Amino acid sequence: MAFRLFSRGNGVADAAPAPVVEKKASATGRIVAFASGSGRVAWSPRDTSSLTRGGFVGNPVGFRSVKLIAEAAAAVPLICEDAERRFDTHPVLDLLRRPNPGQGRAELFEALFGQLLLSGNGYLEAAGLTEAGMPEELHVLRSDRMSVVPGADGWPVAYEYAVGGRKHRFDMTGSPDPICHIKSFHPQDDHYGLSPMQAAAVALDVHSSASAWSKALLDNAARPSGAIIYKGLDGQGSLSPDQYDRLVGEMEMHHQGARNAGRPMLLEGGLDWKPMGFSPSDMEFHATKQAAAREIALAFGVPPMLLGIPGDATYANYAEAHRAFYRLTVLPLATRVSAAVAWWLSEHLGEVIELRPDPDKIPALAEERDQQWKRIGEASFLTDAEKRALLGLPPLDQDG
């Protein structure tokens, strides 16, 4: 008799017909499936590609926020354990150490966290299976190419990965699942997550527009345009079409752009230059840009101090901001993703294992760790076993 812990059947490998097992499902599943269209692709309502280009590739605050979180979360050490012991060596740890020929653990998780931050969705593919049932390789798939195919009960029956005009379909009706889909909470979508990039979309537009406005000022000698006033000999105030075209051409060729900055202007008779100063609204553009940058950092959960954004005094010092960044942003994200990956790999392995971050090995939290160890170590009313449990350590081997 063969038994698989996570099999969707009854686990008995014989010729006898398997009894029909009632599958429990949410009472709202059929309604979700009806709204989505059973068997049809549920397209994401957002344009991930445009948000990625404008908010990550084209915006330094968005780029740095995503990179800071993804790199920090990918570098967090992971603990692998089951209900009884903690493992120093394990097939799951071996797989994560080198998930595929082109990536190590840090590169794989950085890509996964990056996709999750940019689109609200992260997809891991299990490529091949070993004799033990473990994936031979793990690959992060691009979120903008993946689509969910919901079934009659509202749960995905397949995922479609589209590149150009070609599609590959991952069947999710068997066991173990070939795809691990990790998504952020979205209150208005049943199949896709909400990314911080979407929440920061307005602030990203404001910040990018302010940068474009600054660039336009630099292209025009770093000051607002003035006015050329024409007064003819007979009092007329208009130029002929030829005179106007010539004047515009002279201005574009000899007086606009960075290479012509500071170049003196030679005006012919009847032309007078009247410079225009900054208006109060023009002077506020820099403050508006800084406010937009703080909103972007707020959406991602990055203290503005860590991004070099001035004018923010929320934290007393850089070390305090660094600790808050790990406690409020990095560790919750790493905990959620590692737990989802552990459950998915447990299905392949056939036994329950747990992956979780190890805060004791994070330098930014060293001060908090020392205070906690001292406080628990000095508690005389606790036994050694209780102290180890409070510190998240496995029990001592009684035979040792």
TrEMBL record:
UniProt xrefs under Pfam families: Phage_portal (PF04860)
Domain of life (superkingdom): Bacteria
Protein name (database record): Phage portal protein
Originating species: Paracoccus albicereus
